[in-house]
Every structure is written in C-alpha cells, then in structure tokens.
Design goal:
Shape: elongated
EC number: 3.4.16.4
Number of helices: 21
Strand content: 15-25%
Domain HTH cro/C1-type: 91-112
GO molecular function, one term: penicillin binding
Subcellular location: Cell membrane; Membrane
Oligomer: single chain
Main location: membrane
CATH architecture of the largest domain: 3-Layer(aba) Sandwich
Largest sheet: 7 strands, mixed
Length: 628
C-alpha cells in the first residue's frame, strides 16, 4: 500500500513539473517574440525615439545673402526673428501648457491650439511653430517663465529685411513660404516645409546663390525639453552676396518722381546695358511678405486698379505712340522709300481712301523732311512713310530692333509685347489687313504693344550707334568672405537694322525734339547738357474726326498715356531712359520732366552734371506741348 502511494505521488509531482515547464517555456517564447518584435521590427524607430528623449538634432537656418547696389550700398539684409514653438512630447499636459503660454504672451489659447491641431502627423518630439517674429517684450516674458512652460522653445532665425520700404520692390522682389509643389519640383534642394524662398524679382532669379546651406547642432535635453548640453555643431553656410547694377540714389529719385502716379521708369547705361534704375508705381512693401501679410492687405493689393504687384517696366504693355516713329523713320530710310531730302506736306490731315487721318497739330506742319518730322512729331509724314513701306516691312524693322520679343533681362514674367503683321491679323481675327491699319501702326497706335524695357533697349541702341544690349541687372556675386563667384559681363544681342547714315539722321531729329525751338520736348532742356529724346501720347480711346483733341476734359481713366524716351549727353551718352505715365495726357507734360530729373540726378553724380549746380533738383514748371 505504501509502495503504491509513493508511485502515485511521484506521478503527480511529475505532471505538475511538466505543466510548470510548459508554462515557463511559453512565457519565454512570448518574451522572445516580443523582444524580436522590439529589436528587429521596431528597433530603428525605438532607437530614434530613445535618442530623442535625451539627444536631439536642431537645425540652424543660414543667413541669406545680402543685396547691394552698384556702389556697395546695402539694399536688403537680414534681421533676427524670434519664433515661438512647442514640442508636444515635453509639454504634457499640452492643454495646461498652452493655457499658461496664452496668458504670458497675451494670445487666445484657442488660436494656439488651432495651430497645434493643424499640425497633426508631426512627430511629438519635433517643434510646432506657434508664433513667428514675436516681439522682444513677449520674448522676455517667456524666458522669465520658461521653467513653468515645459516644451515651449524659442528659436532665433534670420529674417529678410529691406532697408528702404517699397524701394526697388519690383526689381528686388520678395520671399514667401515654399509650397508643396515647389518642394516636389526638385528645384530647391535642401529646403523643407516652412522655409522661405524667392518668389519674384532678383530674390527668385538668384535664389540658388542667395539661399546658403543649413547647419545644425546635436543637443542634450532634460525631461522638460530644456537644453542642458551642446554635443556637436555644424555651422550654417551663409548665402552669397549679390551686387546689382542699379544706382541707389537714382533709384530713390526715380521713385520719388513717380510717387502718386501709375507707370514705370527705367534707365540704362547705353555703353554696357547695365540697368541703372527700375521703378514701377505704385509699389508695395516687400517686408510684408516675410513678416506675414493679412488676407485683407493681400486682397487690397491684388484688387488695386493701378496694379501695384505688376512690374510695369517689364510686364506692362502699351502702344509705343510717337516714340515708334524712330522705327518708322529707320525703315523708310533703309528701304529707300525716303531719304534725307524727301519732304511731305502736312496740312493737318491725310486722306486715305474714304477716310481722313488727322495730325495732332490741327493746323498742320507744312513741308517737313524726316529730321523735321521727328522734331515736330508730324503724324502726316509718317502716315505716308508707313503707307509706302507696308505693314510687313515695317514689322520686320520693329522686330529686328528688339520690339515684340523679350529683352532677355534676368527677371521672371517679362512680357513680349506685340508687333502685328498681315499674317498675324488673318490668323488672329480671320480678316484681312486694311491699309488704314498700316497708317495707325506707323505712328505707334493700333495693334502695336511694347514694354518700357523694350523701348529703353531701342533708345540705348540708337544712342550708342546701333548695338543692342541685353539688359543687365547683375554686377557680381561674392561669397560672405568677399571672394568673387560671378563677374557679370555685358552681352550683345545684335545690331539695329540701320546704317550709320540712317542713325545719324535719327539722332539729329531726336536732338531737335529737345533742343530745336519747334521741338515737342523743349522744356526738358538741361543747362550744360544736350539731351536727345522722343515724346509720345497713347490714345486710350479712339476719337471721331470731329472731336476736339482736349485730354483735360476726359475722365482720368480715359486720358492718354504719356511716353518719353531719351539719352544724354547726346554725344558719348552715359544714360538712356524710358518713362511711361498712365493717363498722363501728354509725353512732354507728364513723362519728359521725370526723364529730365533722372538724367540730371545721374549726371550730377557721374561728372557732367557738375555743370547743373545752379539748376536745382526739383521739377520746374513745364510748358505743355501737345506732342501726338
């Protein structure tokens, strides 16, 4: 009996041991599977999370390259921006931290929570931007209470800053936050969401040089996210500095002359193609785009009928009006339909078919040759030259002179303009070209469209003897240490389709526009300096033959646009200008005085203008000369 019981006890203990062994084995299997999952499957992610509990990588934004004028005067630099962010992992409980922060910086907690809710999907250890570029008073308040604001961090980054509000805004351009499409395009390597890039003007054209390279530092943080040690630092590399061809003094003077007007003025060195000034009015404050623009302000900008966001110097298209007579004269002389002695009688009108085309001078100019016709801007003379040439021959000379196509200036969204041909009209409208339309385009009306920069290039080419330069806005690019990376060189695009004799006759006429007693721009004369130029007035609406020519009686928005192109000194010119004033009524009244002051300002600085001391620097009263 005893022996039987011992055997039974042994079996019972054996069964218990086997069960326990199975349980232990199962437990170890579960632990092994769990460890395998953690180490192999989730190992990389857990390792990253573990490191971020104590060691984190902070990015350091580079300083964007500075922008200077031709003489090294600073136009755009950077200023410090204090940005407030929160790291959710360190800010538990988040709601309590946000409530405390809202009271400190006097911002509604709901506004801060909205930004957090919009950042769903962002890793808990990565900072979420709550407020950018906040003031120094708020910064001080946050720093004083930082131990009560776990997870709240203040970052400092360089923020773009234009030193001269609204000055050269259309040329320099602005920055704005990179969008998803731009990030995916691959055109902006090294950028991330939230970065600012050039969106317009020079800032966009030279983005790759200006941006610089991001740096970073490896830091050790405590349980509340406060940095306790810096383990490693890689310095950010600042962007390259850009030196433009513009003259800051001339730029500011030009902008002052355009204040309160809609239009554009641009100046160039005829011998190099360097742009000396480029102003478009009205302008905008480029700093608004970096510091954050309200929806209301943006709506005001884009709804403004005078188009402040448009660079009118290169984007706006206008009929060239009488300034186009330079091309008509060139074509007529080169094609032999007129010569120096050819003269036509102007009784104040020209009959063509069953229509009467009027001259701006109702009583007529009498007998005039090509030089005299340029001086007095006789429409009748150029009607007849255009008729003899035909639309297509006239268009060829215009296009060969650089009109109707982009100049190649290194700025985005340059307009082409339009030089019409008979084939163009047929394709565009399905109707044949009419002879009367040739008369209109011969004096720069009708379908003709040009930009101010195109008229400047043409004027510069006439001034320098026929060389067409590509407009240049870049002088050089330097590293932050001063090493030259790019030294820009003048680029010749071609030659005017005119011989020296033709150009001399045209230049003689342009000199007379300003200096002859009959010239349409007599009031532009500058004591001690010969100025040559051409006026033009663009009809905004057509008028019937029996209507009076008075512009003053029309509503402002129906008044004519005013052109003036010029260069000076007439011999060995140093500056060429093109000015357009929208609804300015007359080229001699509105545009020419602006050009005169631009020339005066620049030449006073460069040498010949020393003779102008007695002339003063303000606009003088201008006698209005109706110039067609």
């Amino acid at each position: 009996m005893t022996k039987y019981l011992n055997v039974a006890d042994t079996d019972w203990y054996r069964q218990r041991l086997i069960r326990v062994t199975y349980c232990v084995a199962a437990a170890f299997c579960l632990l092994f599977v769990r460890l395998l999952h953690l180490q192999v499957i989730q190992g990389e992610e857990l390792r990253r999370l573990s490191e971020n509990n104590s060691v984190r990588l902070e990015r350091t934004d580079p300083s964007r390259g500075l922008i200077f004028d031709r003489d090294g005067k600073t136009l755009v630099d950077n200023r410090p921006s204090f940005d407030l962010s929160i790291i959710l992992k360190d800010a538990r409980p988040v709601a309590d931290t946000i409530e405390k922060l809202a009271r400190v910086i006097n911002v509604p907690a709901s506004e801060l929570m909205l930004k957090i809710n919009r950042s769903k999907g962002v890793a808990a250890y990565k900072p979420i931007l709550l407020k950018q570029d906040f003031g120094r008073d708020a910064l001080a308040a946050v720093e004083v209470r930082k131990f009560d604001l776990a997870g709240v961090v203040v970052g400092v980054r360089p923020l773009r800053h234009s030193l001269n509000k609204q000055s050269a805004a259309h040329l320099i351009g602005y920055l704005s936050e990179i969008n998803a499409g731009e990030l995916k395009s691959g055109k902006y390597p090294g950028t991330k969401s939230g970065d600012f890039i050039g969106k317009f003007g020079v800032e966009k054209a030279f983005e790759s040089f200006l941006r610089g390279k991001r740096g970073g530092r490896q830091v050790e943080v405590n349980a509340t996210g406060q940095v306790v040690d810096i383990l490693k630092t890689v310095d950010a590399q600042p962007g390259h500095n850009i030196y433009l061809t513009i003259d800051q003094m001339l730029q500011k003077r030009t902008e002052a002359l355009l204040k309160g007007l809609a239009g554009a003025a641009v100046a160039m060195d005829p011998a190099t193609g360097h742009i000396l000034a480029m102003a478009s009015s009205p302008s905008f404050d480029q700093n608004d785009f970096v510091s954050g623009m309200s929806h209301a302000k943006w709506s005001t900008l884009i709804s403004n009928p005078f188009r402040p966001m448009e660079n009118k110097a290169i984007q706006a298209e206008y009929p060239p009006a009488s300034a186009y007579k330079i091309v008509t004269a060139m074509a007529g002389l080169e094609e032999g339909v007129i010569d120096e002695t050819t003269s036509f009688h102007c009784p104040g009108y020209y009959k063509y078919g069953d229509r009467v085309f009027r001259c701006w001078e109702k009583k007529g100019h009498g007998n005039v040759n090509v030089v005299q016709a340029l001086i007095v801007s006789c429409d009748v003379f150029f009607y007849q030259v255009g008729q003899k040439l035909g639309a297509d021959r006239l268009a060829w000379y215009a296009k060969a002179s650089g009109l109707g196509s982009t100049t190649g200036i290194n700025l985005d969204q340059e307009a082409e303009g339009l030089i019409p041909t008979t084939a163009w009209k047929k394709e565009r409208t399905g109707r044949a070209w009419q002879g009367g339309e040739t008369l209109s385009v011969a004096i720069g009306q009708g379908y003709d469209l040009v930009t101010p920069i195109q008229m400047l290039v043409l004027t510069s080419a006439v001034a320098n003897g026929g060389t067409i330069y590509k407009p240049l806005i870049l002088k050089m690019i330097n590293t932050a240490e001063g090493k030259i990376v790019v030294q820009a060189q003048s680029q010749v695009k071609g030659k005017l389709p005119a011989g020296s004799q033709t150009l001399e006759l045209i230049k003689k006429g342009l000199w007379g526009v300003v200096n002859d007693s009959r010239g349409t721009a007599k009031a532009v004369r500058i004591k001690g300096i010969d100025v040559s130029g051409k006026t033009g007035t663009v009809q905004v609406v057509g008028r019937k033959d029996d209507e009076e020519a008075s512009e003053t009686e029309k509503p402002d928005h129906l008044k004519a646009h005013a052109w003036f192109v010029a260069y000076a000194p007439s011999v060995d010119p140093q500056i060429a200008v093109a000015v357009i004033v929208e609804h300015g009524e007359s080229g001699s009244k509105a545009a020419a005085p602006i050009a005169r002051e631009m020339i005066r300002t620049y030449l006073k600085k460069t040498g010949p203008g020393k003779q102008l001391k007695a002339e003063g620097s303000t606009l003088e009263a201008v006698k209005v000369v109706n110039d067609g």
